[in-house]
């Protein structure tokens, strides 16, 4: 479980860094919301792909 949490935090921070570089005018609150949505979408896609493989 701890490993999953670290992966999620790392993914979220990666999206946050990406947004800071590509959209520097974006307010921090909005960047956090976008990063959270992108992180959630990525893990939903991975979960769906993994459930198809089983």
Write the topology of this structure.
Elements: H1 2-22, H2 28-53
What are its keywords?
54 residues, mainly alpha, 2 helices, 87% helix
What level of helicity do the residues show?
Answer: over 70%
Beta-strand level of the residues, as a percent range?
Answer: under 5%
Number of strands: 0
Low-confidence stretches: none
Average pLDDT number:
94
Following the backbone from N to C, one meets helices and strands in this order, namely HH
Number of helices: 2
Distance between the termini: 21 Å
Question: What form results from the Cα inertia axes?
Answer: elongated
What does this structure look like?
This protein is mainly alpha-helical and about 55 residues long. Helix content is about 85%, strand content about 0%. The longest helix is centred in the C-terminal third of the chain and has 26 residues, at about 30-54. It starts with a helix and ends with a helix.
